[in-house]
Amino acid sequence: MRSLWRGTISFGLVTIPVKLYAATEDRDVHFRLLHRECKTPIRYRRWCPRCEREVEAGDLVRGYEHEPDRFVVIEEEDLESLPVAAARTVEILDFVRLEDIDPIYFLRTYFVEPGDGGAKAYALLRRALQATGRIGLARVALRGRSSLAAVRVYRQDCLCLETMRFPDEIRSHAGLQIPADEGYRDQELEMARLLISTLSTEFVPERLRDEYREALLERIREKVAGDQVYRVEAPEPTARVADLMEALRQSVRLAEAARGPASGVPAADGAGPRPAPPH
């Protein structure tokens, strides 16, 4: 694996050089949209409807819509002046119990590997977290912004870092129609507890499979085996005819305005020479 980030984990006066690696990967089946008629992949363009032209990436800026159709432009220097966590540092602020954090807070997981000279401090932090049953609640700068994070032990031997949502990013469920803890009989509760106890087992992730993805991939393989594959030649780049014609018309108008209309030259709209008005 290739490391995505290099920096340090710090708590108190202890600093551990570390590397981060993506701990998960997207295994979903992704599709591209094709034109049903010719099976050509559809392209999406950065299009400005006001200027009626395609916009290059270098001509784009960030805009925050603070009111409908009213934008504040944010430049790179605006972002650089904002307070963020220290670059290349995972700063542990507190140590808390993992069970005190609801899973709704967690976003993405990264494996943590010690950097050069960090093996001893890495092993010490891992053992201390295991002995105390705690995780480190930290602040880190990833992808140009500050994030909450949790440093914890994964499968007894590896530290991992979990990026987290901030509390104000969690919606309230107060408006939902949640039933009160009533309406069922004690016998029904006992039966439900018995059913849960009967179905309880150890969590073995290797037994879990994405049956939908497997079935979808099998269906794709069947279509490939049945030669239901469309080969699409890349279209040659062509000039946009409407824009080209308009450019030619405007060029003719400018030329006529500069030297005056010449005999035998058709009018810019292609209608041909106009007859002279009657005397």
TrEMBL record:
An example of a GO molecular function for this protein is: double-stranded DNA binding
Q: Does the keyword Repeat apply?
A: no
SUPFAM superfamilies this protein is in?
Answer: SPOC domain-like (SSF100939)
The UniProt family comment states: Belongs to the prokaryotic Ku family.
Gene name as annotated: ku
Q: Which GO terms describe its biological process?
A: DNA recombination; double-strand break repair via nonhomologous end joining
Oligomeric state and interaction partners are given as:
Homodimer. Interacts with LigD.
Protein source organism: Caldinitratiruptor microaerophilus
Q: Which residues form the Ku domain?
A: 52-181
Q: Which residues form a coiled coil?
A: none
Show the segment(s) annotated as Disordered. Answer: 257-279
CDD domains, sorted: KU_like (cd00789)
HAMAP family linked: Prokaryotic_Ku
Cite the record's Low complexity compositional bias ranges.
264-273
Q: Which InterPro entries match?
A: DNA_bd_Ku70/Ku80, Prok_Ku, SPOC-like_C_dom_sf
Q: What task does this protein carry out?
A: With LigD forms a non-homologous end joining (NHEJ) DNA repair enzyme, which repairs dsDNA breaks with reduced fidelity. Binds linear dsDNA with 5'- and 3'- overhangs but not closed circular dsDNA nor ssDNA. Recruits and stimulates the ligase activity of LigD.
The protein's name in its UniProt record: Non-homologous end joining protein Ku
Question: Where does the source fall among the domains of life?
Answer: Bacteria
- Which keywords annotate this record? DNA damage, DNA recombination, DNA repair, DNA-binding
